[in-house]
Structure formats: structure tokens, C-alpha cells
């Protein structure tokens, strides 16, 4: 009798373990399924946003990524100068991160937007975190 109880408990525990593992796998798949695999064709386009600025109102930013893996980054320091600055170069996609040549920081590729990362490659946290986003124009 004791043998039957032991086996029954093992079956119940293994069933619970399997159910938990399946639930965990399903939730991970749902998280990555929103945008799908990041590919070069998904990042090509024009991105725009107003990034935070310490000594001006904002940094109006436009980033253009072309099919031949070149970029043009244009920005204006709003409230400080009307002069437009620009940089250009090549871009590379590595997993979900976009690397622009001649820039110290990278961007994390998300669904129809790019999130600027800090100089160590981590997401920017804090009150202004949502302002470090460039949204893709339609």
C-alpha cells in the first residue's frame, strides 16, 4: 500500500513539474513573439525622437538607416541652436542591438522603435528612460 502511495505522489509531482515547465516555455515564447526575430530588413527606415538634453529643451533626432547598411544621424539642440549637426557611417546589427560606426553608444531594436543604451550597453533607467526612444516613421 505504501508503495502505491509513493508512486502516486511521484506521478503527481512530475505532472506538476511538467505543467510548470510548459507554462514557463509558453510565456517566454509569447514575449519574443511580439516582434519576432530581429532582421536587417526590419530595421531599415527613418526613426525620429526628442532625446533628453542637460543644457537645452531637447535633442531633436532623426536617424535614417538604409538598405546598403549606411546611416545618417541628424540632430538639433532645441532651445540652444538652430544649427543642424549630422553624422554618417555604417551600421551593423548584432542580435537585437544596432551599432552605428563612430558613435559611443548603441540602440536596442524593439518593435518599430530604437531604444538608446548607455555607454556600457545597458538600458537607461530612471525618470527619463522613456525619452531615449526613436520611433520608426511609417
UniProtKB/TrEMBL annotation:
Organism superkingdom: Bacteria
InterPro entries: Cu-R_lipoprotein_NlpE (IPR007298)
Pfam family, one: NlpE
Gene3D superfamilies: 2.40.128.640
Designated name of the protein: NlpE N-terminal domain-containing protein
Gene source species: Sphingobacterium psychroaquaticum
